[in-house]
Amino acid sequence: MQQALSASADAPVLQVEALTLAFGGVKALTGVGFSVQPGSITAVIGPNGAGKTSLFNTISGFYRPSAGRVLFEGADITRTPAPQRAKLGLARSFQNIALFRGMTVLDNIKLGRHAHLKTNVLEALFYVGRARREEAELRRDVEERIIDFLEIDHIRHAPVSALPYGLQKRVEMARALAMQPRVLMLDEPVAGMNREETEDMARFILDVRDEWGVTVLMVEHDMGMVMDLSDHVVVLNFGQVIAQGAPAQVQADPEVIRAYLGAGDVGDLRRKLRGEQTVAGVA
Ligand SMILES: Nc1ncnc2c1ncn2[C@@H]1O[C@H](COP(=O)(O)OP(=O)(O)O)[C@@H](O)[C@H]1O
Ligand SMILES: [Mg+2]
After folding, report:
1. Is the beta carbon of 28 within 6 A of some atom in ligand 1?
2. What is the pLDDT of residue 66?
3. What is the sign of the dihedral through the CA atoms of 207, 210, 215 and 219?
4. Where are the domains of the chain?
5. Is 1-89+180-283 assigned to CATH 3.40.50.300?
6. By alpha-carbon position, which residue is closest to atom 1 of ligand 1?
7. How far apart are CA 221 and CA 237, in angstroms?
8. Which listed ligand is nearest to 94 at the C-alpha?
9. pLDDT in tens, 113-139
10. What predicted TM-score, i.e. pTM, was given to this entire model?
11. In the chain, what percentage of residues exceed pLDDT 90?
12. Which of 63, 151, 176, 210 has most Cβ atoms within 10 angstroms of its Cβ?
């Protein structure tokens, strides 16, 4: 397994360096680079088709970049298979929910934890005691911490298919948390949610960071939420980073405003930015 080069508290937990990814003639990502600080909430934003999901898929190992590197805790994981990255502590949710719809909430969550069990099948034959202890630990973990935390106790035995969308998204987060990640990647965690569901999810994301110490990297369209929650914002347009920095800095960046104008999203942008924060030159 790769060795972490640096354990310094200030070292980035995740580094993306000059990532390039193409689908045939379409360049989804060109020279994308940024760092994620431990304990931060970092958001990737950008108009539709900007490359956000492609970037997530490359970081989590579903796509192989044609150039560039991904470093996790200082180790190069560019060639590490996706399941291995998850085991290292890089967990994710998907833009379109990827739960087992016929299974219960609890079973879906257990699958997440399963990926993390130290005991493999062969070992389990010889170390039944340890396996059993892990099993017990698993149950405690799942039932008492995650389910409690995400307030999904009342639906633990419900099949996922019977749940409203907002709750399904929460179950997906629970499953990702069950892997005990150091970095949790969320692809559009509040897409399709109403205001109340969005506020709940925003609170959970903050609590995951504050109470669990999990670093969060999210792709999100809801600009208000991004600006409220994030420490660092990375803006993609046409597969390239056009700006990054603190929310206030990024909001005021003329190129960011132009990117949204160019995408014909000005009304949308105004709506999203209206509220707590005013944007120089736009609002
Ligand atoms: N699997 C794929 N095959 C071909 N083209 C793709 C694929 N995934 C994404 N793309 C293209 O890459 C670009 C970036 O897409 P995507 O990463 O989904 O953007 P976003 O998530 O920001 O909306 C788009 O032009 C899209 O059409
Ligand atoms: Mg996307």
Report:
1. yes
2. 95
3. positive
4. 1-89+180-283, 98-178
5. yes
6. 23
7. 13
8. 2
9. 665 554 444 444 555 566 667 767 766
10. 0.82
11. 47
12. 176
